[in-house]
Amino acid sequence: MAQLKTTFAGLTLENPIIISSSGLTNSVEKIKKLEEAGAGAVVLKSVFEEQINIQAGTMSGYGSPEADDYLGAYVRSNTLNEHVNLIREAKKACKIPVIASINCYSDNEWTEFAKIMEEAGADALEINILALQTDKDYTPGKFEQQHIDTLRHIRQAVRIPVIMKLGANLTNPVALINQLYANGAAAVVLFNRFYQPDFNIETLTYCNTNVMSTKAELADRLRWTAIASAAIPQLDYAISGGVHCGKGVIKSILAGATAVEVCSAIYQYGPKEIESMKKELAEWMDDKGFENLAQFKGKMNANTAGSVNPFERTQFMKYYSNHEE
Questions:
Q1: Where are the beta strands (DSSP E) in 118-216?
Q2: Cβ-based burial of 206 (10 A; exposed 0-12, middle 13-18, buried ≥19)
Q3: How many angstroms separate the CA atoms of 40 and 261, rounded?
Q4: Pick from 107, 120, 209, 222: CA 20 to 30 A from residue 62's CA?
Q5: What is the mean pLDDT of the chain?
Q6: Quick check: pTM over 0.85?
């Protein structure tokens, strides 16, 4: 009988399926239903630094700088208190690990916020630093250093595991992951998703493309997890984006992940999809003779590719240079 237990960022999970930060995890009632449906852990709906600052900025123009500062501080405090209460209530109601989440682009206030989240009972803290670098005078490497500095400052403030969720807009994710490991990251999640803009050509207005991920997005995550887990095996990895069924979970673990973060599949098919993923994973393991996840974790990462390296562009050249229509 296949055993689905795994460890991620030092946390013990009954299975590798983590529900990622989203509207699915913004209330205790929803989190409890996800636990009952079989989730291994949840990442709470993020506290967004950008959103807080926008809200705080709207509380200006009340006659004095002191009043503006007070109202801005109130917005920040109120938003944080909501998140802290969610952590506390979720920990009371659920047995699965509860991971707090911060989506930030600076590290000015987040060390203090991280300490408060730890005191509220969060089992771990996931940090998202997602931003496009568009300044024409941008210094290469500055964005990556921001990740390292933020992690280092937060690690100095808390004892709980700190997980770094990276965006895909990095020149060399492996080099950054290596520095994150050196500065105390417990795990890395690959990758966070940008919501892409689109144009409505009839109304000449901006709109969004589909906010849900697709299975096609998994391939890029598999590539970088397979490369990174071979280069820095000391870290735990999770794949986020494109995991829509049990096969996606299996592929993620073969690439070197110990867990996956899912969201779109649960929005589309409901919490029952968790059990379907677990069933497909367990049946595949039984069929292949694997008793636990460790027996096939990383079995197809870059270390096992040998001279035939499917993760590099040279393979494209090898297989398609002679292709004719």
A1: 124-128, 162-167, 187-192, 197-200, 205-208
A2: exposed
A3: 10
A4: 107
A5: 87
A6: yes
